[in-house]
Every structure is written in C-alpha cells, then in structure tokens.
Design goal:
Order of helices and strands: HH
Number of helices: 2
Helix content: over 70%
Number of strands: 0
Low-confidence stretches: none
Largest sheet: none
Distance between the termini: 20 Å
Strand content: under 5%
Radius of gyration: 16 Å
C-alpha cells in the first residue's frame, strides 16, 4: 500500500510542477504578446501570481526531497 501511495504522490508532484510551469509560460506569453501593457494593478497582480507560482514550485520540490 505504501508503494502505491508513494507512486501516486510522485505523480501528483510532477503534475503540479508541470501545471505551474505551463501556467507561468502561458502568463508570460500573454504578457509578451501584449507588450506588458496594463494598469498598475494588472502588473502587480501579474508579479504576485508569478511569485506565488514560483514559491509553490519550490515548496513542492522541497517537500518531495525530504
């Protein structure tokens, strides 16, 4: 049972990391295609969201390595 759980956790870890990376690439692509035009609130939310995704990826990797 433990090996099945660890396989599932590894799969979900990689899926979460892949989703974070894909989402960051999509957000960056949209920003680049719009030349990062927008209000200050849109720019701050972009920076905040990217920061949260990076922190989430780091925490997932740290949890996986322990």
């Amino acid at each position: 049972m433990k090996s099945e759980t660890s396989i599932l956790i590894k799969l979900l870890t990689w899926a979460a990391l892949a989703g974070n990376i894909l989402f960051m690439l999509w957000i960056s692509y949209n920003g680049i295609s719009e030349h990062f035009k927008g209000t200050i609130y849109e720019k701050l939310s972009y920076i905040g969201l990217m920061g949260l995704l990076v922190i989430n990826s780091i925490l997932v990797l740290r949890k996986r390595n322990t």
